Amino acid sequence: MQAIVLGSGAGGGVPQWNCRCPICAMARSGDRRVLPRTQSSLAVSADGDEWLLVNASPDIRQQLFDTPALHPREGLRHSPIRSVLLTNGDVDHVAGLLTLREGQPFRLHATRGILDSIAANRVFDVMAQGVVERTEIALNETFSPVPGLSVTLFPVPGKVPLWLEDGTPEIGAETESTVGAMIEAGPRRLAYVPGCARVTDGLKDRLSGVDALLFDGTVLADDDMIRAGVGTKTGWRMGHVPMTGEGGSVAALSEVPIGRKVFVHINNTNPVLVEDSPERRSIEAAGWVVAHDGLALSL
Q1: pLDDT for 226-276, tens place per residue?
Q2: How far apart are the first and last CA of the chain?
Q3: 3-class SS at 256?
Q4: Where would I find the Metallo-beta-lactamase domain in this sequence (predicted)?
Q5: Which tens digits make up the pLDDT trace of 26-58?
Q6: Can you say how many angstroms the Cα of residue 245 is from the centroid of all Cα atoms in its chain?
Q7: How far apart are CA 82 and CA 243, in angstroms?
Q8: What mean pLDDT value characterizes the chain?
Q9: CB atoms within 10 A of CB 212
């Protein structure tokens, strides 16, 4: 199995277009301690020929340009992307669908709840249904989006997308709105969980024994954005478990047998983005990798 982290940043990427927080300023100035990052997306293949795209980032055009394995290879129009899978309806995971509208056939896989949110916004009709087949996937049901890969979607604690919030949303519920993907090729298993509000015992059981885990790394501490002075919401309110602190993912997953632990979906205010910072060293010492765009895994 081959996996490529196309985008390792959270919504807005790094640097965010309108942000002058210290980390964005470092990235914008060319400081080599902070690599620019596009918004969250992953590509997976069993054979390097046919690919599954997991989440369609608003930055998908640049991500595809930067990834030769996903370039057109034959004829006048072609793409090795055979299927797209959505893990939630967040803008940073679905807006790229609008870029994938140029008459290119592929299958769009998601739970009924996520597909309904897409169908409710007619702008997504630019993906003509005669060209892009929308396929409902039931939770805990295994399917094959491309040859050689088997995928099972499972619920993780989360919340509805911001653009669908109505009043005070329920946070931490396990529904079809936020899912993880267990991706298998032969005996190898990769779990992709770019959004998660808390680590439950059930989730730990689900992740036990995987060869690689790509997990929600939005915030280091629950109040990252407040400390940075650029927001008022905590990680919990946004539906993202912090890396550290009580209930944080590093401690919660420390005793779970996992081959390789990788943080993805990292917000621009998260200090682990600064290479060789105390925060980065602490996370790496705990056995985690901080993903960057283009990070390739071979399992």
Answers
A1: 888 887 887 788 889 999 999 999 999 999 999 999 999 999 999 999 999
A2: 5
A3: coil
A4: 51-266
A5: 999 999 999 999 999 999 999 999 999 999 999
A6: 22
A7: 33
A8: 94
A9: 22
Cis upstream peptide for 145 (omega within 30°): no
Regarding beta strands 142-143 and 150-158, do their DSSP bridges make them parallel or antiparallel, or are they unpaired? antiparallel
Q: What is the torsional sign of CA 102, 103, 104, 109?
A: positive
State pLDDT tens for residues 81-122: 999 999 999 999 999 999 999 899 999 999 999 999 899 999
Cis peptide leading into 15, omega within 30 of 0?
yes
Spatial separation of the C-alpha atoms in residues 58 and 36, rounded to whole Å: 15
DSSP conformational letter for 169: -
Give the pair of three-digit tokens for residue 252. 């919660």
Considering only CA atoms, which of 105, 16, 7 is closest in space to residue 55?
A: 7
CA distance 72 to 62: 14
Domains in the chain: ranges and CATH: 2-298 (3.60.15.10)
**Residue 281 one-letter amino acid:** R
